[in-house]
Amino acid sequence: MLLVVFSLTGCAQWNYQDMSDPSRDVWQKPQGVVEKLSLARGARVADLGAGTGYFTWHLAKAVGGRGTVYAVDTKESAINMIVKEMVARGTPNVRPVRAEPHDPRLPEPVDLLFSCDVYHDMNDRVGYFRSLASSLRPGGRVAILDYHPRGFFSGMFGHRTAKEEVRREMEAAGYRLVDDYDIVARQHFQIFAKADH
Prior knowledge:
Rossmann fold; disordered N terminus; alpha/beta; single chain
């Protein structure tokens, strides 16, 4: 039993290192993604499923010292890594938030809810994003990047969601598509806003 726990801990550590690998920049194109978000200095952003903070640090730079990025994750190990990296980087505008699977526990409404490679892991996505509408400031948006369902293993492990499925579910949750970008070959990148009722 102890061996299994150590193995899982080591596997989690490896996974977090893989998520932060600098070679990821080549295909993930974080600067291009963040540029398309058109974030104002001083904006408030929630990085949902922040993991190691791969996008958190890019978002924090974009919003500047007067802005805030909430690095939201359900895993204590991810939050601990974010805190450690915050100290190392001296990034005072990042605030780690330990979330619940059904509630990001944001302390205030934000201008942008950002999600990269997390959407496919969420349960009751329609209900989750419907409830998050109250966490958006006026004019707030939701940005979702998720893997295209391509390749043999994509359906087997469920780590992908079709662009059309994301769009349908977000519309059912009360949002409308604002932008659709093809910056990252492996992922679709869509931005939504609350639908006018």
